[in-house]
Specification:
There is one protein chain. The chain is an alpha+beta fold and 348 residues long. It folds into 2 domains: 5-90, Phosphorylase Kinase, domain 1 (2-Layer Sandwich); 97-346, Orthogonal Bundle (Transferase(Phosphotransferase), domain 1). It is 34% helix and 15% strand. The chain is built from 11 helices and 15 strands. The chain has a 6-stranded mixed sheet, with helices on both faces. Helix 4 packs antiparallel against helix 7 (200-216), helix 7 runs antiparallel to helix 9 and helix 9 packs antiparallel against helix 10 (284-302). The two termini are 31 Å apart. It is found in: Membrane. It is a single-pass type I membrane protein. One of its GO terms (cellular component) is membrane. It is an enzyme of class 2 (transferase). This is non-specific serine/threonine protein kinase.
């Protein structure tokens, strides 16, 4: 059993230079960089919550689940007034995957293709861990902003404020949980958005969006993709896969880095994850295995080592489904904006 340090408000004020070291913000919390003395010599991240429910949900997940690909909880502070509610966790110096994919500072090294694959594998392993415990945890907001990177580019899933904890006994007899829709527009499972039925496959869809974002370095809600204005990243990428135009998806900065066979395998998995029908999506453990094999394939090709798995030969361009899910409209009144990235959020 792990024990977590109880910090005082004064300790946090000292650690953050009176909360001047802000590094992130959301509608439900602010994040500060802190320097804790004595036994905690490493830099930490301090999340200041504006909502009791969000804090309790984050604590419930992080205090009961420990995995290399899940951000680690160090301590908490419930000192002083009702507004002073904090959790302290490990600091991730490389920021988020979103920061690395969409940064404007060209002086920093570009994320290579193999590094992107390794990050995706790590994030998928963290998600697999959440989906296999008791209670089962559905993250509900998988996106590149919630995949953090440590000094060695090791990926860790973060931000569990809207996660759902589902007892294993429930998941055995019921295929879904009915709940108000929550998450980030552009990443939300369309079947969940339509029905309110939440399953682990909702996280798989969101992770499929992440896979396409990693490959293209385009944001999910860009509306000026090539000549198809008004389409989402997923719609455009899926059309490219169906029409055999995979080269168009690739981040131009990765030119000549991706082996064609590797691109084929990776795009096929992203396509399957973003199927509108959840029962046709793979499980996250299947995604982990395929991504690991995709990385192995890339490395074998680079090393000129023969490797031609049967599953690769079986991949063919998919046929576009002619009966999509019913179109739905999201009213502006149902949306709120993030303070720092202008993405639209749906919350409980």
């Amino acid at each position: 059993m792990r024990f977590y340090r109880r910090f005082t408000l004064e300790e946090l004020r000292t650690a953050t230079d009176n909360f001047r070291l802000k590094i992130g913000e959301d509608g439900f919390y602010s994040v500060y960089k802190g320097f804790i003395k004595d036994s905690f010599k490493d830099t930490v991240a301090i999340k200041w919550f504006k909502d009791d429910y969000c804090l309790s949900k984050e604590m419930a997940v992080l205090s009961n689940r420990h995995h290399l690909n899940i951000v680690s909880l160090i301590g908490y502070c419930l000192d002083g007034s009702e507004s002073n509610k904090f959790i302290i966790y490990e600091y991730m110096p490389r920021g988020s995957l979103h920061d690395q994919l969409h940064r404007r500072n060209d002086s920093q090294p570009l994320l290579s293709w193999k590094k992107r694959l390794e990050i995706c594998i790590g994030a998928a392993r963290g998600l697999e861990f959440l989906h296999t415990g008791n209670p089962l945890i559905i993250h509900r907001d998988i996106k590149t902003r919630n995949i953090l990177l440590d000094q060695n580019w090791f990926a860790k899933i973060s931000n569990f404020e809207i996660s759902k904890l589902v007892p294993t006994s429930l998941s055995e007899w019921d295929s879904h949980v009915i709940t108000r829709v929550a998450g980030t527009v552009g990443y939300i499972d369309p079947e969940y958005l339509l029905t309110g039925h939440l399953t682990e496959k909702s996280d798989v869809y969101s992770f499929g969006v992440v896979l396409f974002e990693v490959l293209s370095a385009r944001k999910p809600r860009e509306i000026d993709i090539e000549e198809g204005q008004g389409r989402s990243l997923v719609q455009w990428c899926r059309e490219c896969v169906e029409e055999g135009r995979l080269d168009e998806i690739i981040d131009s900065r990765l030119k000549d880095e991706i082996a064609p066979e590797c691109l084929k395998a990776y795009a096929d998995m992203a396509y399957k994850c973003t199927n509108e029908r959840r029962n046709e999506r793979p499980t996250i453990d299947a995604v982990v295995k395929r991504l690991q094999l995709t990385l192995l394939l890339q490395e074998c090709i680079e090393a000129d080592v023969p490797f031609s798995p049967s599953w690769l030969r079986s991949i063919v361009p998919p046929t576009k489904r002619t009966e999509p899910l019913v179109e739905i409209e999201i009213q502006d009144s149902e949306l709120s904006e993030s303070d720092y990235d202008f993405e639209e959020l749906l919350r409980d």
